[in-house]
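Quick one - first record:
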Amino acid sequence: MDIQLEKKKGLRPKHYGYIALGIFVLFMGYQLLFASSVSTFRTEKDKLSIAEVTQGKFDDYITINGNVAPIATIFMDAYEGGRVEEKLIEEGAMVKKGDIILKLDNINLYEQILQSESGLALKQNDLRSTKLTFESRQVEGRKSLATASTELQRLKRNFEQNQALFDEELISKEAYQLSKENYELSKKQYEIIKLQTENDDELRQNSLPVLEADLNRMQKTLGMVYQRLDHLNVRAPADGQLGFLDAEIGQSISQGQRIGQINVLTDYKIEATIDEHYIDRVKRDLVAILERNGKEYPLRLRKVYPEVRNGKFKVDLVFTENKPETIRTGQSYNIKLQLGASSDALLLPKGSFFQSTGGQWIFVVKPDSDEAIKRSIRIGKQNSRYYEVLEGLEAGEKVITSNYDNFNEVEKIVLK
């Protein structure tokens, strides 16, 4: 009689192999389905910008935008303060150097002028009186000196005569001695008067120039005060256009306050701002080109401002030859600023991919394929049209140059 065997429940050894095989198949399927989808992006080819890398001439320039400004701007500051009494010229008018623009009124300045005039008059009177005194003393001194000289000569003759008579014992010793004493006294008096006269002359010579110098200083001071009075007439400092005028009738103007400016329109300059990325390469005397109505107008970079604001710095350019006939202050122009000499290079057309990659990598389209692969590259200089490729690409290759925001993390793009 046959015995029916019961099937053993549970996993047999062969089952473990089947399980392992199933797990491996599932893992590979997961890798194919999910892992590849993470690094691959599918998109329509028409939605992308594709450009070709070429070998050509790289022009090392940048395109900047500038505004036309007067070649020079002269600010007008009030030399003297005062109240605006009359406004003769309005903003925007053309003026000539010396034209009166404003008339100011200053009561305090008038008082200072009166005080200066009074002081000058007193100084002039003092000098006049001093001169008269010196001249009077000089005349008296010369008269006294002449009298003393005459008296000395007379007493000298008397003494010499008495000396001869005394030697011959014709006069007494007393008469001789008296004539001698009178002569010696007259001699001493003459020396004193002479010394006094010389001192008076020296004092006059030393004092009068000092007094005259003081008088001249006061006259110059008064002249400066009169000049301050003339400064109440605010005049145009140069020929040009009155750009702005911050003054109204009745308004009080402080000394040194800026009240306007004159735009010198004999020539023009271009004021432009440049990204700070180029600050080390932008220097004075670089050349530039302004294109207008099919014509080119050469420019020279005249000034580079060192201050950087909001990631940009300012430059001034001037025309070296002709300028557009219709040029006006405030007009805006695109200008090509040449940074260096032209050279042969691999040229990559500019695109918005650069904002996402910083020029460190790019998607290269495979030849005869609908796939684009991520590749590292190195970019050098750039102008308004091209990047200079230093490494990573070859002439004839095609690359995606449009924005990478949608596939910034993928390694491959499938083009449909």
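second record:
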Amino acid sequence: MNIIIAGDGEVGVHLAKSLTELDYNITVVDPHSELLKQLETETDLLTIAGNSTSPQVLREANVGDCDLLLSVLHDESINLMTCILAKKLKAKKTVARITNAELLSPKHREMFRDLGVDEMVCPERIAAKEITNLLNNTEATEFFDFSGGLLTMYVIRLEADSPVVNHNVRELAQTNLDLQVKVVAILRRGETIIPHADTVFEQGDLAYIIGRANQLENINRVAGKHTVNIKNVMIAGGGRIGRYAAMTLKDRMRITLIEENRRRAESLSADLEDTLIIHGDATDIELLKEEGLQDADAFIGVTNSSETNVLTCLHAKKLGVKRTIALVENTGFINLSQDIGIDTIINKKLITASYIARFIVKGDAVSSKWLSGTNAEVIEFMVGKWAPATRKPIGQLDIPNGATIGGVIRGRETILPSRELQLKQGDKVVVFTLPKAMALVARLFD
């Protein structure tokens, strides 16, 4: 597969680095020559310094032989124009990053598809949706549904009173909780572990667990967690993510939104009639206390400053707020932020990569989720008619190191994998995989 990534900074570079272990031809087009020089020293990717809306630059990148063009610059107008030009120059598929969620309406999607933009991704809207889902599933650090919720992946931090701490994976199945789950990975002190039967759980582990939705209560007991009822939410930051989150949550929760920019605060007040909008600085802890931070069930930091988001979440935790979510732009902050007590980290680069991954992975990828704190991904594949995975039971498949099958969806039936299970055409298979194994595991289902 030939892939062109057009970017203007970290998002494009992050995508390119994430894909370096896959067996694809990747070309990065970016106007920042110094950034490209650094990328060239770290990878063997082909880079071109230039403007992606230049037909000459696109031809230099061999856009005519391009299977997939990803335009992820910060300016959505450039992304849309890049995709339109690339399609006219015979690129097979195009994906544009956008910031205006209005363009995602069916009417606008169809219009831009006719112009040559096959897909559009809005990281801010996806981030807001993820925040909403997390507040509805308060025990999980992250979670992701497959096939409309038939299977769910929960990322749970094991607390000190978890009954599985100091016990191995085999013993998990022997509890009296009637668990029907698969532990696909453990994140421990920054290291991603694909567990085996003798792997021992430790306090503070992030356990990646796949199971049916009716297993949530049992999973919470395993983690040593208790259900939190979220009624009062404080949001710091009234940008696109804060606005989308408030609009989604306002009918079910009491929302207080802090915004430093007066004009934006006035606009928010006009659009969100049932939301308390406060014009003020989110770093002013006394202001947050005056507005009831200590009485909030959840605090969400989504300002333009990662440092502000992290620090305000830590203050919220100190005041007894049960659930904290921080937007962190620097991926290097993610593990640190989680280690110091923030419940969930949102990162737009990972969100963008998650959406785009389904177009990149060989095989029929139905959905995917790039996970915070690790370079791993969980992907839902559709098993093809002639796929190698249909020829042998799971126990005899050449599943590469760094990957594991977490669950199977057959029609409306959910199946936890066993060595004897025989996959069939049309099955949906949920796979947890590290980058080094992604290309190999995808071929099993193609």
